[in-house]
Each structure stands twice: as structure tokens, then as C-alpha cells.
Amino acid sequence: MLALLVLAVESGHSGVAHPLTGYEVSDVALFVFAAIAVWQVRRALRKRFAKARGLDGAVVRKRSPNETPPDKVPPNKD
Fold first, then answer.
1. What percent of the chain has pLDDT over 90?
2. Statement: the pTM of the whole predicted model exceeds 0.90
3. If you average pLDDT over residues 24-36, what whole number do you get?
4. Range 46-62 average pLDDT
């Protein structure tokens, strides 16, 4: 068990810092992945909110099953 700990410590890093020469492949891959994720989320939200709008652009609100439709609401007695 002690040999595994010593081996893990020795192989972690050489201790020499190399100068940066440009972007690493992992940096580019992370940026591309994030850009695609943002694009897909924006597309999904646009699609979701477009469904919520009627043909005339008015917002259509979903009613709960217990809610009275607006054409069957009794008038106020004020």
C-alpha cells in the first residue's frame, strides 16, 4: 500500500513548467462544447416559447383542470 502512495506522488508532475505556445486541444474542445450547449439551449427555449404563443402572437396560458373557462365565469355583482 505504501508503494502505491509513493508511486502516485512521484508520477504526478515533473516540477518543470513549460512555456505556453498556444491553445491546448482540451481548451478548444471545451470552448466548442460550451458554444454548442449554449446554442442548443437557446434553440430549445425559442421553440418552447414559440409554442406558448398563438397565431396572432398573443400569449396563450395553459389552464389548470379545475379552473373555470373565461366564457363561463359569472359576472361580478358589484
1. 26
2. no
3. 95
4. 71
Give the whole-angstrom CA distance, residue 40 versus residue 35: 9
Specify whether the CB–CB gap between 59 and 52 falls below 8 A: yes
Q: What is the pLDDT averaged over residues 55-76?
A: 69
The Cα 32–Cα 25 span in angstroms is 11
Asked if 30 and 36 count as a contact pair (C-beta separation under 8 A), the reply is no
Q: Please provide the DSSP assignment of 5-71 as one string.
A: HHHHHHTS--SPPPPP-S--HHHHHHHHHHHHHHHHHHHHHHHHHHHTB-TTSPBPPPPPTTSPPGG
Nearest CA-CA partner of 70 in 60, 50, 55, 57: 60
Alpha-carbon distance of 66 to 78, in angstroms, equals 25
